[in-house]
Design goal:
This protein is of the alpha+beta class. It is built from 6 helices and 24 strands. It has helices at residues 5-15, 66-71, 122-132, 184-192, 244-256, 304-313; strands spanning 2-4, 30-34, 37-41, 45-50, 58-62, 76-82, 86-91, 94-99, 116-121, 147-153, 156-162, 166-173, 178-183, 198-203, 207-211, 215-220, 238-243, 263-269, 272-278, 283-289, 298-303, 318-323, 330-334, 340-343. An 8-stranded antiparallel beta sheet has the order 5-2-3-4-16-15-14-9. Strands 13-10-11-12-24-23-22-17 form an 8-stranded antiparallel beta sheet. The protein has a 4-stranded antiparallel beta sheet with strand order 1-6-7-8. The termini are far apart. 34% of the residues are buried.
Amino acid sequence: MKIQKTDLAQKLNKIKGVVPKKTTMPVLQGVLVRDGYLIANNMEMTVKEKIEGIEGESFIIPERAFDLINNLPDGEMEVSVVAGNIITIKADKIKNKYQTMDPVQFPVTASQEEGSELTIKADMLLESIKRVSYAVPAQGSNPVMSSMCLQASGGQLNFVGLDGHVLAWDKVEYSGEFELLIPKNTVDKLKSLGMSGDVQIRHSKTGAVFITEDFEVYTRLVEGEYFKYQTMFKELPLHTVVSRMALLDAMTRAKMCTEERCPVRFELDGSSLSLSIKDKTTDYHETVELQEDMAEALTIGFDARLVLETLKAFDCENVGVSFGGPKMPMIVEAEDSDFKTIVLPVAIN
């Protein structure tokens, strides 16, 4: 196989994160080259990335060769395999050999032929995934909670993340009925691939595949029923509107003044929000102007990190903020889309 080093390195870098660090199947600790694709598999997720000019080739690039490929000089490189599964990488005056594995042993996820199918624009899919993914915990004892819910119901396609402290919900118009629980690792990989054009999603009860012109991402689905998230969003009596960037900047300044995980105190009164963070080394105060007067004064506390992550998930100029009382969740809503979140309060002195 002859290929430009830059092309191979860029494609490997997009999918190498799928390659498992530890596995009972050593053959998975590499990227398979087969039928015009680079393929990485960790038995929960398989990513296939199209690569030109290698039809008919079949071999495994071992993980320990990735760094060398990245650091080769720009220009044409050559990868060849001889008997005994010895792979040779050559570029300019550089040559190195690696022992690799038999590509026949590499498990490749079967195509998702049965089940249902939908098509969605990649930018629409990724925008909603990026909004809600911060609320999906990286790991936990509850597999359902450690997944993103992709649910079609009532004429809309819902994207939901929930970690017990924050709930994020976005939606777009779609006609259909299904519910897929997508593992956090797959969600993160979908965000990082740089997909474009149309995304075809095929799914069954146990698995799903996301297909574009350049990628195929196969994933197992989490079993179980997702939470009744719609019922958690209720109309609250206290409402205001605030500049997202003004509040985000104030929260960033406040958070950088403390190394401890301490709550941020919100004191809302009339047209102002006074926020403060206090610990052994800092006593930070800042006032942010509200665009709508509060119906009554309210003092409430939140995890500062969650407030920051929530504000970063939005991309609109202003957000609507609603409260029900000092011990009730805060609802944050975008002014230009259906995206909204719930942030639970914490106790403050």
